[in-house]
């Protein structure tokens, strides 16, 4: 039976998923079809938000560490992020020369409050869900949110199937996303948070600075290396997928929605599989297979521009994406020392933001230098290498475990 906070967290996740699916899923096609964005600008849709997150993460973590309660701050941050959806709807009132850049600036600015809410939510929810329930809860939550996202995306695609080149359709989507953002704030405020005890000045000063001792933890250090290698190769292709689907395959809003629904439909049925496999084999070993599976997506994508075929590729990606979403976060919490978890999450987000800024730009550079076919194949190779790194991490952990068992014996 679910606890109160688990139920409210699921409701919050549902409305958050709807808000994101109403807007963010269609950022690239809006930028290309309506604003006339070039390849470099399309790449910045993926790169600018993490750059802002990189700048904001440490100040956000310092601020959150000083708070006795984080819920209100997280909720207000979400509110400010969703208000910017309204500004996106007004981009078309700018001069046509500046519309794409205005759009990019607003998307980037969303991540100022977005970074605060992201770190705050991760810390908040990790304290509300006990470790023994974490795997099952996040598996169920991710599956339910994926169902909601799939239904939302399908409805949007059907209703707006002939509106790909109509600016008003996108404006309506952004305004609806804002309304669901208000519901996000409501459900965030419904969580029951335990008040953190006040600290003395010495402890408060300690909480306001970085705890470098986290890098001495062998498990966390290995997690950082492997997770960042994987994310780098994963995120290199984000801009390229958008460009390929819209410019090469000429996908409309309906087909973009179908790709997303196909991806999410597979995720719904595979979250429990990844959970069961992880419990049986370990998060680390299963992530080897996840990374290897993610490696085939870029290679398969550029084999054809047939939209039905690309739907099948999207389904294949969904199978491994569900594992990525579930296992990476679980492994982060698993390898982060409990007493230093906020610092571990913060450090991971800082480094992840740096990778997320650099990787899509390198992907676009590869596209310009080698063309779409070669760049996608190179990314597939790099993703497979990241699977090897996860395997090395698993071997190291197993070796350490055997040594510990022998010592205890």
Which tags fit this structure?
single chain; 409 residues; mainly alpha; Growth Hormone, Chain: A
* Overall CATH architecture: Up-down Bundle
Low-pLDDT regions: 204-208
Number of domains: 1
Average pLDDT across residues? Answer: 84
Helix-strand topology string: HHHHHHHHHHHHHHHHH
Helix/strand class: mainly alpha
Short recap of the structure:
The protein has 409 residues and is an all-alpha fold. It has helices spanning 4-23, 27-33, 39-65, 71-89, 96-109, 111-128, 131-159, 167-189, 201-207, 218-235, 238-248, 253-281, 283-294, 296-301, 307-335, 341-370, 372-408. It has one domain: MFS general substrate transporter like domains (Growth Hormone, Chain: A).
Describe the structure in your own words.
The protein has 409 residues and is mostly helical. The protein has a single domain, classed as Growth Hormone, Chain: A. It is 82% helix and 0% strand. About 1% of the residues have low confidence. It is globular and about 55 Å long. The chain contains 17 helices and no strands.
Give the secondary structure arrangement, pairings included.
Blueprint: H1 4-23, H2 27-33, H3 39-65, H4 71-89, H5 96-109, H6 111-128, H7 131-159, H8 167-189, H9 201-207, H10 218-235, H11 238-248, H12 253-281, H13 283-294, H14 296-301, H15 307-335, H16 341-370, H17 372-408
């Amino acid at each position: 039976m679910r606890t109160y906070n688990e139920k409210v967290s699921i409701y919050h996740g549902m409305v958050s998923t709807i808000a994101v699916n109403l807007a963010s899923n269609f950022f690239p096609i809006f930028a290309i079809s309506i604003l006339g964005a070039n390849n470099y600008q399309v790449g910045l849709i993926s790169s600018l938000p993490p750059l802002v997150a990189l700048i904001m993460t440490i100040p956000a973590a310092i601020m959150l560490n000083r708070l006795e309660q984080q819920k209100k701050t997280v909720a207000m941050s979400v509110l400010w992020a969703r208000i910017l959806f309204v500004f996106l709807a007004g981009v078309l009132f700018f001069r046509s020369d500046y519309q794409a850049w205005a759009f990019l600036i607003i998307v980037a600015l969303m991540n100022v409050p977005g970074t605060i809410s992201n770190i705050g939510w991760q810390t908040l929810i990790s304290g509300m869900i006990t470790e023994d329930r974490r795997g099952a809860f996040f598996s169920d939550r991710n599956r339910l949110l994926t169902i909601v996202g799939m239904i939302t995306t399908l409805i949007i695609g059907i209703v707006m199937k002939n509106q790909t080149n109509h600016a008003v359709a996108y404006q309506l989507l952004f305004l609806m996303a804002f309304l669901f953002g208000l519901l996000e704030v409501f459900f965030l405020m419904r969580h029951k948070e335990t008040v953190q005890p006040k600290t003395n000045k010495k402890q408060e000063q300690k909480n306001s600075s970085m705890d470098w001792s986290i890098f001495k933890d062998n498990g966390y250090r290995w997690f950082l290396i492997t997770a960042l290698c994987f994310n780098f190769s994963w995120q290199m292709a984000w801009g390229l997928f958008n460009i390929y689907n819209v410019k090469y395959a000429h996908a409309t809003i309906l087909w973009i929605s179908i790709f997303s629904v196909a991806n999410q439909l597979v995720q719904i049925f595979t979250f429990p599989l990844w959970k069961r496999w992880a419990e049986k084999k370990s998060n680390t070993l299963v992530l080897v297979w996840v990374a290897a599976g993610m490696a085939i997506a870029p290679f398969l994508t550029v084999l054809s521009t047939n939209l039905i075929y690309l739907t099948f590729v999207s389904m294949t990606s969904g199978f491994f994406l569900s594992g990525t979403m579930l296992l990476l976060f679980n492994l982060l919490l698993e390898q982060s020392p409990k007493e230093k978890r906020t610092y571990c999450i913060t450090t991971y987000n800082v480094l992840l933001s740096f990778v997320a800024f650099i990787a899509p730009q390198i992907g676009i550079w590869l596209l310009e230098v080698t063309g779409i076919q070669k760049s996608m194949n190179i990314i597939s190779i790099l993703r497979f290498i990241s699977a090897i790194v996860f395997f090395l991490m698993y071997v190291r952990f197993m070796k350490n475990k055997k040594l510990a068992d022998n010592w205890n014996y």
